[in-house]
Write a structure and sequence with these properties.
Layout lengths: L5 E3 L5 E5 L2 E6 L2 E6 L5 E5 L4 E3 L4 E2 L11 E6 L5 E5 L4 E4 L4 E5 L7 E4 L5 E4 L5 E5 L4 E4 L1 E2 L2 E2 L3 E6 L5 E5 L4 E4 L15 E5 L10 E4 L5 E4 L5 E4 L5 E4 L5 E6 L5 E5 L5
Antiparallel strand pairs: 1-2, 2-3, 4-5, 5-6, 6-7, 8-9, 9-10, 10-11, 12-13, 13-14, 14-15, 16-17, 18-19, 19-20, 20-21, 22-23, 23-24, 24-25, 26-27
C-alpha cells in the first residue's frame, strides 16, 4: 500500500527493503498478507501470527488446533483469516476467533476483496460466498447461473471475481448491465483468454486494487491486460513463479531464480 518492498528468501525468512538494504524481519515465514490500509500480518512456520507494524505477536492468538495453519488472508477491515492444512478456516471478527469452515467443508482456497466480500472454492470447484450474519457459505450465483468449476480466484476492486477454471481458461465476471461482447457465451462468466500461443492453460492471475490485471502462462511468461481482450506480453528475466498485481499497471513478481 505504501510502496514498501517485501521478500521471502529460500530459507523462508521475511525481508523488508530499507533504502538500498534488505533487512530481515522475521522467519521462517509460511505466508504473508496485507490489508488495504497497509497493515501487514505474517504467518510463521510454527503457526504464530505476527503483526509487522507493532512487531509483536498478533493478539488474541488463533485457537489451538491439531492441524497447523497453512495460508493467511487479510480482509478489507484488516482482520485475519487462517486456513489450516485440513482445509478448515477460522477468522478473527474483531472481538473473537470464529470457525467459519470445518474440515468436512473442504474449501480449496479463500480470498478477500477490497469491498469486504469473501469467496472460497469448494471441493467441487464451485465458488461460494461467505455470509457473515449466518456464518455460512452459499453458492455464488448471478443471474440464475452458477460459476464454472474453478481452481484459483481473485477479487477485483468492485468485488467481481477473476479466476482460472479447471479447464485452464482465464475468466472474469462482467458487471451487471454491461453490453455483451460479440458472440458472448450465455454464461455469467465471459471467456477472456485462452493461452493458445503457449499451448497450455493460464497458471496464475493477479488483480490489483485499481483493477490492474496480470497473468502468468504455463511457460512462465508474464502478460498484462490492457483493454477488453487485449493482452501485452511483458518481457522479464527468467520464468515467473509468483505474481502480485499493484496499481497503475505495476506488479511484483518472483522468477525461477528467486529474483524480484
Amino acid at each position: 500500500h505504501d510502496g514498501t518492498m517485501w521478500a521471502v528468501d529460500f530459507g523462508d525468512t521475511l525481508y523488508r527493503l530499507q533504502g538500498s538494504v534488505w533487512k530481515p524481519v522475521i522467519g521462517p515465514v509460511r505466508d504473508v498478507a496485507a490489508a488495504p490500509d497497509g497493515q501487514a500480518l505474517i504467518l510463521t512456520s510454527d503457526g504464530k501470527l505476527f503483526d509487522v507494524l507493532s512487531e509483536a505477536e498478533y493478539s488474541p492468538k488463533p485457537p489451538d488446533s491439531t492441524s497447523p495453519a497453512a495460508t493467511l488472508v487479510v480482509d478489507a477491515h484488516g482482520l485475519p483469516w487462517l486456513q489450516r492444512e485440513d482445509r478448515s478456516v477460522v477468522r478473527f471478527d474483531g472481538t473473537a476467533w470464529q470457525t467459519v469452515a470445518s474440515a468436512k467443508d473442504q474449501l480449496a482456497m479463500v480470498t478477500a476483496g477490497f469491498d469486504g466480500g469473501i469467496l472460497g472454492i469448494a471441493a467441487d470447484g464451485q465458488i461460494a460466498r461467505y455470509e457473515p450474519r449466518r456464518n455460512t457459505w452459499q453458492p455464488y450465483v448471478t443471474g440464475g447461473q452458477t460459476v464454472p468449476p474453478m481452481r484459483q480466484i481473485a477479487l477485483s476492486p468492485i468485488g467481481l471475481p477473476w479466476g482460472i477454471s479447471r479447464a485452464g481458461e482465464l475468466l472474469a465476471e462482467r458487471p451487471l448491465g454491461a453490453p455483451p461482447p460479440p458472440l458472448a457465451s450465455p454464461s455469467v462468466f465471459t471467456r477472456l483468454l485462452t493461452w493458445q500461443n503457449t499451448g497450455g492453460p493460464t497458471s496464475l492471475v493477479g488483480v490489483g486494487q485499481d483493477g490492474t490485471v496480470y497473468t502468468v502462462a504455463p511457460d512462465g511468461s508474464l502478460w498484462r491486460r490492457r483493454r477488453g481482450n487485449q493482452w501485452l506480453r511483458v518481457q522479464v528475466e527468467g520464468q515467473i513463479k509468483a505474481i502480485a498485481s499493484g496499481t497503475e499497471g505495476r506488479a511484483w513478481g518472483i522468477n525461477d531464480k528467486g529474483g524480484i
